[in-house]
Amino acid sequence: MFLPSMRFVMRIYWRQFVRNNFDKSSGPNEEAAMKVRKEQKRLLAAEIGAAILQGDYRPGEWLRQIDLEEAFAAKRFDVRSALTQLAASGMVSHVENRGYRVAQPDLTVVREILAIRMLLEVEAATQALPNIGPGELEKIKQTQKIFEDAVARGSKADQANTNAAFHDEIYRHAANQSLARLIVEIRNRARPGPIALWPSNAELQRSAAHHVEIVDAIESRDLAALVAAVRRHIVESGANYPAR
Question: What positions does the domain HTH gntR-type occupy (predicted)?
Answer without folding.
Answer: 38-105
